[in-house]
Amino acid sequence: MENTSSSSFRLLAFLLISFHIIATCLAMNISTDQSSLLALKAHVTPDPYHILSKNWSSSTSVCNWIGITCGSRHQRVTVLNISGMGFTGTIPPQLGNLSFLISLDLSYNNFHGELPLELSRLRKLIAIDISSNGLNGSNVLSVFNISSLDYLGLMDASLTGDLPSDLCRRLPRLQKLFLSSNMLSGEIPRSISECSELQVLALMENNFLGTIPGELGNLQLLKVLDIGFNNFEGTIPYEIGHLYNLELLAMDYNKLTGSVPYVIGRLYKLEYLSMERNKLTGSIPLSIFNISSLEYLSIGDNKLEGPLPREVGNLSMLQVLDFSMNNLTGVIPHGIGNLQELEDLSLSYNNFKGSIPIGIFNISSLIYLQLAGNHISANLPSTIGHGLPNVEGIHLSGNNINGVLPSSISNMSKLMYLELYRNELTGSIPESLGNLRLLEVLGLSSNSFNSELSFITPLANCKYLRKLILSSNPLNAMLPKSIGNLSSLEMFLATGCNLKGHIPNEVGNLRNLSSLELEDNDFNGIVPMTISSLKNLQRLSLGANRISGPFPIALCELSNLALLNLSQNQMWGSLPSCLGDMTSLREVSLDSNNFIAIIPSNLWTLKDILKLNLSSNFFNGSLPLEVGNLKAAILLDLSWNQILGNIPSTLGSLQKLTHLFLAHNRIEGSIPEAFGGLKSLEVLDLSYNNLSGVIPKSLEALKYLHYFNVSFNRLHGEITNEGPFVHLPYQSFMSNEGLCGNSQNHVPTCPSNSKDRSKSKKERLMRVVVASSVFSVIGLASAIVFLLMRRRGKTTNTEDEWLPEVAPQRISYYELQRATQGFDGNNLLGSGSFGSVYKGTLADGIIVAVKVFNVQMESTFQTFDRECDILRNLRHKNLTKIITSCCNLDFKALIFEYMPNESLDKLLYSRDYCLNIMQRLNIMVDVASALEYLHHGYSVPVIHCDMKPSNVLLDNDMVGHLTDFGIAKLLTMEESIAHTTTFATIGYIAPEYGMEGLVYKRSDVYSYGIMLLETFTKKKPNDEMFVGDMNLRSCVHNLLPDELDQIIDADLLTVDEENLSRKMQCVASIMELAMNCTANIPVERIT
After folding, report:
1. Bind-site residues for ATP
2. For the domain that residue 833 is a member of, what is the CATH number?
């Protein structure tokens, strides 16, 4: 009995001791977990939300701490999740003591330094996420040694280098791998197929390259494959079609080529498919539209061709459909209207035509409708606003949509973006747009709206309106004062709208405005002083108006202004010195005004300015050395002023300068040798000055220089034939009597001995004598022409006559067809035997004249080629500017700058407009200037052969431009006469032209004389009043000098009777000139 009691006692004692030992061990292990976590707390500084300081305390159980989960069996820490708590600090090695830890999530904090190697001791760990911290990338790779992991999150972890080739052997249980947003490179190892349990592979936003391995097709459990934003090349492997469990496939933003594999259509569980921004070609495989589970489909920005299949309407779950920026053709399928879950439809920048299916406007779930940059036509439905209650953005720019803007659009109460640029919308802009209370962007530019701007007043209800873009519409209205009520406006663009009157003072209320662009309108008056309130203004463009007054001092208060454009106005006075205090300025255009005096000295302190254009004013004085402070400048234009003195050598230090214009001034001295330091220079124009000395050899080093002009100076010495001078035309050097060199520059050969020098000296003396007499005549004529030019409304632009060649714009037949609305008769400007001329509006809003040749005529090809050969090299302010050509076997056209005032012929005989005497004289001076250039200013003489009023076109400023070179003749340097079988217009042709088929330069002079007679008599040379031997010339000759009132245009005699006598004297002089031009014998005509 005693033995039994003794045994029981010993057993009880053993159990008590064992329990005590176990309890001690448990207490010690939970204490280990606590101390490990407190070590982490100690390494966190700061704790912005006081999570650790207030909650992680030794007075409470670890298992109750925020972010901690304990196991129910052992009460040990199994989960540590402090993701996104804003912690900053380092990770202590003690975390390696959390031996029961299953999941560790430290993501989206600011931990930095090393990832402790002790974490590799956590053998029970199956999930770790340390994404988006600042840890040392190379040390982070140690987690690949934790073989128990099935979840590994290392996004934005600064990882570099290649993926380990033995990744799957190290992590055999891996199911989810997130490595996005790192700097990993190399190829995806083909051994990735060994990760047989892998369900998620996210490698987006790295630098992976090479091809996509076909071995990925072995990952049968894969649900997510995201390899977007890398540098993968080659084709999409066929094996991708084996991933039958795939729900997300993203390959966007790579360099993949080839077609979209048909086998993609076998992925019946796919919900998300993105392949945008690659180089995929071919057509869209029909199989894709069998994936009924698709919610997101984006293959935009590729090179896909063909139609969008109508089967797209089968994707009833689709929320996003994006095929934008491809080459898709045909019509938009009506089946899209069946996609009642659709939120984002983006088919922009393709070649779709036809109308927008009406069903699209009834998709009530639609948020974004993006169809810009296609060839969509027809009207917007009048009910557009009734079926899209959730739409936030409508982007239909760059199409052919016509008709009116329906007022029902105001029912789209959630609309924030309405962009309808570059369409053919007409009528008024609905006032009901003011009901769109959430509207942020209203873009209506480049249409044909003719609204009275009454819609602006209700726009004050749009409290979030940031951008109002109305440019290139014929609004023909005054800007209302209510514009000042759009207080949230940041950008207001209304260029080329024919806006009139004053700029209202209320514009100063737009305190949030950063861009105000109102150029190319008809504003007058002064710039309102209230503009000084626009402290956020960065861009102010008021050029090409009729704004007058001195430079507005108020502009100097705009401390953020970067672009200032007041060019082509009527402003006067001197520039204020405060302009030099506007250090934010980057581009300044004050050209073509009437500013005077010396340029303020502190303007040269604007060291960050990029473009400075002060041309075509009356600035005087000399350029200071401080001009060399403009170190950032790429363009400096001071031409057409009255600047004196020498060129500062400091200009040569502007190494970023690409364009320098100093032409038409009174600059003296030599060209600085320092100009050889202008390493970026492309264009240098120093013509029409008094420069002397030689052309510096240092300019040979300017390898980017492609336009150089020093004509009409007093330079001497040899023209180098090195560097950029090899290909320069002779016009670059003309009228410098002392220059010599290669004969192709039309200068004498440089003397090589004393005999040559003596002969050269005699030749120069002869030239001086001849030049003296010639220039005395030219000087008188120039003075007259100068006075005439100063009477015009706007100053001639610096680059009109000597414009550097640029690469011609490429315009396709299809673009011309769109521009002219299918060569519609309403756009016909004129026609003749050669073909027809149409008015057209290009996609960028530029209005052009399209001369379409009649390819059925036998001579068309010769005429077209001749006109191309001549016009491609001619550049003069009074010749029509050719933009480009369009040519194929069945179509030939030339595209010219559009002349809004049509021809001299039409205005001369118009019932609605009367040209006054000065206008007629100015136009004929313009024609004479063009003719002088053709005969004497081009490399070989050009005979126009068809001078008549209908071939003189007038621009917006009534400047004459000679056109139509279809039958023109080029003379070689040895020729002074040519033979032609092509006859010009009867009545204007010279006698020798009609009788013998011979043309001289004097033949054009004869035609010019007939034009002079017609312009001031308003009688055509083939008028019925001229019978027998009587013609226009003989009639005027018989009435000179005292009876001209019998034939002169009566409109010229009734305008101002007070000056009738002076007018008649002026007209008589002009008629005498016409007589000298139209002598029957060519040698008796003036040239």
Report:
1. 851
2. 3.30.200.20
